[in-house]
Design brief:
Layout lengths: L7 E5 L4 H12 L3 E6 L6 H6 L2 H4 L2 E5 L5 H12 L7 E4 L14 H26 L5 E6 L12 H20 L5 E7 L3 E2 L5 H10 L4 E2 H13 L4 E3 L4 H10 L1 H19 L14
Parallel strand pairs: 1-2, 1-4, 2-3, 4-5, 5-6, 6-9, 7-8
Helix pairs in contact: 1-8, 4-5, 5-6, 7-10, 9-10
Length: about 280
């Protein structure tokens, strides 16, 4: 399936850095988009820069996907679309950085709920609508840290490992059917998703950081080719393979970075998730 004027997409996390870049890409390809965001006001600048014709192809839903009523709002809006949705992109997520022992245990549960439970529940609720299309795709925006466990990101890694496993299972469960499940893994991306401490760590370690626009373009390209798995960036593609085949090799490499990681992570609290209500 190619993203074009026949695409009716549901995009969660539409107000985020990668989310807004994906929204621009979808509109540029002619798609109609149901944009889901907790803070739709963050989309105001985007609306101001795009044409009236493109604005007419966007419907915005304010929803907190961690809440049942938030997911119901998305399903209700999708049910009233002129065309059955044939593309669901899960972009909503929360980040986490800090030493695991120093962070509140309840934040781990909240992170897993938003990053894993909510997208799976929303997928489940939208499956009947997605199946009304001759072909449909469900896309999870994951992370390199869904394949490589990394110090300072234990809870975040857990959430992305779980999401990757779920989508791998769903892809196999629905093999040969009209609905496909794709998992996309960006590496470090330059957005407000990262805390200042994470930005500082990337600079200290010399990590390559992609623009949100580049990541969005790569994701849309993978959707066009129905690519089930995508890892963005080099040497990340190699490191993911090595971690699968020779994890001890990465253990030693990351161990050499550990003092710097600890320096940046020590004393950093996980940024609390917003209250469980639509803001």
């Amino acid at each position: 399936m190619s993203v074009d004027s026949g695409t009716c997409a549901i995009l969660t996390g539409a107000s985020g850095g990668i989310g807004q870049a994906l929204l621009r890409e979808l509109l540029a390809k002619g798609a109609n988009v149901l944009a889901v965001a907790r803070s739709p006001e963050k989309l105001d600048a985007l609306f101001a820069e795009i044409s009236t014709a493109k604005r007419k192809r966007i419907q915005v839903v304010r929803a907190d996907l961690a809440l049942p009523e938030g997911r119901r709002a998305v399903v209700s809006a999708a049910s009233w679309l002129n065309t059955a949705p044939n593309l669901l992109i899960h972009g909503a997520a929360s980040s986490s950085f800090g030493l695991f022992a120093e962070n509140a245990a309840e934040e781990v549960g909240r992170l897993l709920a938003l990053n894993v439970t909510s997208p799976l529940q929303l997928t489940h609720d939208l499956l009947p609508l997605l199946r009304e299309s001759p072909t449909a795709q469900v896309v999870a925006i994951g992370s390199t840290f869904g394949s490589i466990g990394y110090p300072g990101f234990a809870a975040y890694c857990a959430s992305k490992f779980a999401l990757r496993g779920a989508f791998e299972a769903l892809a196999r469960e629905h093999h040969g059917e009209s609905i496909a499940f794709l998992y996309m893994s960006p590496r470090a991306t330059r957005t407000d998703f990262n805390s200042p401490e994470v930005d500082a760590l990337n600079e200290t370690l010399g990590n390559r950081v992609d623009s949100a626009e580049y990541v969005a373009a790569e994701i849309i390209k993978a959707i066009d080719h129905n690519q089930r798995r995508l890892q963005i960036g080099w040497p990340e593609k190699l490191l993911v393979r090595l971690n699968s085949l020779l994890p001890g090799l990465l253990d030693r490499g990351i161990a050499s970075q550990l003092p710097k990681i600890q320096d940046h992570a020590r004393g950093v609290r996980v940024r609390p998730l917003k209250p469980q209500a639509v803001d």
